[in-house]
Amino acid sequence: MKTRTRIAAITAAGIVAAGAFAGTVALATASPPMSGPGPGHGPVTTPRGGPRDGGCLAVPGITDPSGTLTEVQRTALAANAEEEKLAHDLYTEFARRYDTPVFDHIAASETTHLEAVRTLLSRYGITDPTANQAPGKFATPAVQATYDRLLAQGAANQDAALEAGRAVETADIALLRESLGGLTAPDVQRVYGSLLTASQRHLAAFDRWLSR
């Protein structure tokens, strides 16, 4: 459970203060998107909305072969599912409150991201912690607390909601980078690579809205 504890700490740090995750944002954006074959590439489609509104490349179909996952990597995969659900549920709620297309567009992207992670969970026989969970509800107490805190933060005004989105994407980037370390399973590498690129684009979209 050490990995899940680290994940909760990363997420919590992103909520406490913008300065806490600014360094992670810099790390995530320092490396340009990969080109050519490799994790995060393959057939892609472009969902509605341009870059300013959170549009990004969809996760490609999972056609790579399976590999072997350690127990830590299996735990991280389940944690990534909860992170994707948190992002989806939070942005969906903000989309109801604010007439800002970035929330609606990124929430749609998070739907495809969660389905990709769920496909991997099924492949590797890992229990899906997001199964049968209602919107805004999570199996892991730390994730539930994170969602509740971010939802309350975003209820203040639109900019506060955009800052909450930045915190989520920064935490996602940190989690995905950690999850990719030592990973050898081709199918999981590809999905994580795609999710990392998507989170970088989402973060950039929130930054553009905040600097408008």
From TrEMBL:
Q: SUPFAM superfamilies in the record, alphabetically?
A: Ferritin-like (SSF47240)
Decide whether keyword Signal is in the record: yes
Q: Name one Pfam family in it.
A: DUF2202
| Record-annotated DUF2202 domain positions | 81-209
Signal sequence extent? 1-22
Q: Answer whether the UniProt record assigns the keyword Signal to this protein.
A: yes
Q: Which UniProt keywords apply?
A: Signal
Would you tell me the protein name for this molecule?
Answer: DUF2202 domain-containing protein
Give the taxonomic lineage as stored in the record: Bacteria, Bacillati, Actinomycetota, Actinomycetes, Pseudonocardiales
